[in-house]
Recover the amino acids of this structure.
């Protein structure tokens, strides 16, 4: 199946390890993620003030691209758009709901865009890649495609905030989600449950309050380690930066801290499906995950 | 309530779209907040101060700049008050006067190189006008 795909800015640079691993593992499952032509930044955060229509325009423009892909026959009758980045997913989905729930908002935006865009019809659905895996592919089929089960690899799934909250856009139960657990189990991994899997990593405060973020990340990682995790599976480039790269700051504040690898869940899919290691782009992971993978016989030396 | 205080309460209501009158001060928001330790006024107290229209105290607080927009309090509030929207409204009241919370020139160059776009875009969206 062919389905429109929105990457967002970070997946084209430091999050390339997320994008490449997702696109390649999707192929194994018979899914072609077709990148939106002329996509633009979604704004990263949803504008929450009631009178702010201006900041809804960037996300809505991307949804118009999905309409166009159907009109041009790039995809066939597929008005869903798949997003990988949790922040882009949340922003696009909330903006979509915001204009759909009040006709006058949609009309105003369409009027503003008259000269440059076809009107947005409000018929696009924003979904996360994990939802596609669960509902369209199915975890059973994923299990069938596993060539190298992630045996004995103890993984703590980390959801963060924006995949689950607020509830109207969340992809699973906001208090006790299971979707990542189910995927990791299908890949053969040993899932380690942690209480902090839905706790915030500090998000955008990483720019001006990195010490606060390092402390939040320290708690999340420590709890995972105490429960026996050897690595973390994440689904967001900002969470990944805060949990992975900020381990440098954690180490400065807590010299006894031992670093722990943070994967994108799609990198674990690549490994389990037996695809080439290059698809994982481990060069972009801050904490080198290779020693752990070699120890577990999941990677050759 | 003085007219000025009333006006502030109305402004916050208008921008956030939230009705604060149902808050029963249970404190679940403060208890759920992962960043409450950094705040000078807890989310529960802030709601009370807005209800009372204490504009200066509310806008001088650093609470809305510490908020992570993680929506944990939103998910848990038994009265369905969206505190994240209140925080956004308070930030916007300041930002729309051109009072930026952070200045790009003050971020060290090495950090700018290291930070992913997603961090910079979201932070500037939240903290600059």
């Amino acid at each position: 199946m062919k389905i429109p795909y929105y990457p967002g800015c970070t997946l084209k640079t430091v999050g390339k390890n997320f994008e490449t691993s997702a696109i390649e593992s999707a192929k194994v499952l018979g899914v072609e993620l077709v990148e939106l032509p002329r996509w633009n930044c979604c704004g990263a955060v949803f504008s929450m003030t009631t009178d702010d229509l201006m900041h809804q325009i960037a996300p809505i423009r991307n949804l118009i691209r999905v309409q166009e892909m159907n009109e041009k026959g790039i995809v066939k009758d597929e008005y869903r758009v798949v997003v990988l980045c949790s922040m882009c997913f949340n922003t696009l989905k909330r903006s979509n709901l915001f204009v759909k729930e009040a006709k006058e908002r949609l009309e105003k935006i369409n009027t503003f865009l008259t000269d440059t865009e076809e009107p947005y019809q409000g018929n696009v659905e924003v979904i996360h890649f994990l939802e596609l895996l669960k509902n369209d592919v199915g975890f059973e089929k994923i299990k069938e495609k596993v060539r190298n089960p992630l045996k004995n690899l103890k993984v703590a799934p980390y959801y963060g905030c924006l995949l689950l909250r607020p509830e109207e856009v969340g992809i699973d139960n906001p208090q006790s989600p299971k979707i990542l657990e189910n995927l990791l189990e299908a890949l053969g991994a040993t899932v380690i449950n942690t209480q902090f899997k839905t706790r915030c990593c500090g998000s955008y405060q990483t720019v001006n309050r990195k010490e606060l973020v390092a402390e939040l990340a320290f708690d999340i990682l420590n709890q995972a380690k105490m429960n026996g995790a050897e690595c973390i599976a994440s689904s967001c480039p900002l969470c990944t930066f805060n949990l992975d790269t900020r381990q440098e700051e954690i180490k400065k504040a807590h010299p006894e801290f031992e670093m722990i690898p943070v994967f994108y869940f799609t990198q674990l899919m690549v490994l389990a499906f037996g695809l080439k290691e290059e698809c994982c782009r481990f060069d972009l992971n801050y904490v080198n995950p290779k020693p752990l993978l070699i120890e577990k016989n999941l990677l050759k030396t | 309530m003085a007219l000025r205080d009333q006006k502030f309460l109305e402004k916050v209501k208008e921008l956030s779209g939230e009705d604060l009158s149902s808050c029963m001060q249970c404190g679940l928001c403060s208890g759920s907040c992962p960043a409450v330790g950094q705040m000078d006024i807890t989310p529960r107290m802030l709601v009370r101060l807005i209800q009372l229209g204490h504009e200066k105290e509310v806008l001088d607080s650093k609470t809305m700049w510490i908020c992570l927009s993680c929506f944990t309090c939103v998910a848990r509030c038994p009265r369905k008050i969206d505190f994240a929207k209140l925080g956004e409204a308070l930030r916007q009241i300041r930002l729309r006067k051109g009072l930026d919370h952070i200045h790009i020139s003050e971020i060290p160059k090495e950090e700018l190189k290291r930070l992913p776009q997603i961090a910079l875009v979201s932070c500037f969206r939240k903290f600059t006008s």
Chain A has twelve helices and eight strands. The two ends of chain A are 36 Å apart (CA to CA). Strands of chain A lie at 2-6, 32-35, 80-83, 125-128, 154-157, 190-191, 231-234, 262-264. The first helix of chain A runs from residue 16 to 28.
